[in-house]
Structure formats: structure tokens, C-alpha cells
Amino acid sequence: MMQRRSPATPCGAVLAISFLARVATGLELSVNNHAADFTLSAKLGPAISLSCLVHNSSRAEELLWYRGDGRVGLNDGNKVNISNICISPVNESDNGVTFTCRLARDKSVQVSVLLDVQFPPRLSGEETLHVEAEKDVTLSCNSKSNPQAQSTWYKDNQILTLQQSHHELYQSSEVFQLSIRKVQKSDNGTYTCVVESSLGKGTRDFHLVVEDKKPVFPMEAVIAAVVVVTLTVFFAIVARRDKIFKVW
Fold this sequence. Notes:
By secondary structure, the protein is α+β, with helices and mostly antiparallel strands. 17% of the residues lie in helices and 42% in strands. The chain has 2 domains: 100 residues, Immunoglobulin-like; 86 residues, Immunoglobulins (Immunoglobulin-like, Sandwich), CATH 2.60.40.10.
């Protein structure tokens, strides 16, 4: 007698059942009164509090917090139906980080918060560079900011006039570079990198000293001269060997 096998339930059907169950009960989460993912703007320093709350549940629900992909440790009294975390102090490394509150028994129930931490460029100091004439040199300003900053280069307190094939600029979200190809004596001076955003600006000075080009020592010519001198002495000795032996 053949046994009847129960038909397998497709994965899609399981997800659909889970979704319908949530819809039927109205179970959802909110973070700081937001029931959907949102972006939270912040400044450097002051602490940020995030509060996750379970809605429409008739049972005790455990909550989980994540920073990016990493789990946030919670105290036992800060896990059930309501859970709070505090980011203090807020710093540059928190910018662009996502904090997510999830339901422990159904991690598809979640709300995420993207931190938008705004801070001005941080740039200061000075540097002296000694470069031989005809060599290339690159001046680099490393500075992060949010919103992204723009850079301007000055030479001796005047906006630098860029020369094609002589100056080259490179800019990314964190790096601002000025490259000078085959420096000349006329490139001597103080170069200032000014990085500015709507929140402020930073500056850095580069004192460029172009030194005289060092003469290239012709090693091939020296080696050839040594060989010629050595052979000349050798043949001279061979040619006069009889006289040399008589003297001895």
C-alpha cells in the first residue's frame, strides 16, 4: 500500500504567509516615530538617541539592534517591546553608517536609520618640499568633510594660474592634489591648498624650493676611460719589459 507524501511548501509561500500574518496583526516597528527607513542628520559631538518600539503585538517581542552588519550589545532590560541605543559622542566615523532595529523572531520586520553626520574640512599645517629642477612634484591635501568640500590652489597668496601640461589637479572626496611637471626655478614659492564647504574651510601651506639640477655623472664614459687607461699602461709595460728587467 503506497504512502501519500505531503507536498512541499514553496519558499515563496512561506514568505507570503509570514507577510499576511504581519498584515493581519498589524505588527510593525518604529524608530523615533518613523515606521519606514529614514535618514537622520546630525552634527559632531552631541549624542543621538534611537528608540525602537513594537506596535500592535499581544506578546513580548525581543528586539535586536545592528550597526552596519555588526550586532549591538543590549542589556536584558532593553530588549523587549522597546529598545534604546545612544551614539555618543557622534564623530566622523559615524557618517554614512546604518543602524537597524529588527524583530528577533522575524528579522524581515525592521526599520533602518542612515546617519548623515555633517562636519567641516579639517586641514592645517605646513610643509617644505625640496625638489630638483626638471623633476615632478605632487602636493597633497588630505581632508574629509560632509558636505563634500571644494579646493582652490594659491601661489604666493594669488590664485594659481594653471598651465596646460605643467599643472594637473586631482580631487576625490578626501584627497586634493596639485601635480607640477618638470619644475623650474619659476615654480619656487608658497602654495596654499584651501578646502572649503558650507560649514567652514581649512588651509595648508607648501613651501616649494626648486634646487639646481645635479649634473648626471656619465658612468659609461668613466668606465670606458678606466679601460683605456688600464690597457695603455699594460701595453706600455709590455713594450718596455726588457728595459724594466735590465733595471732590476
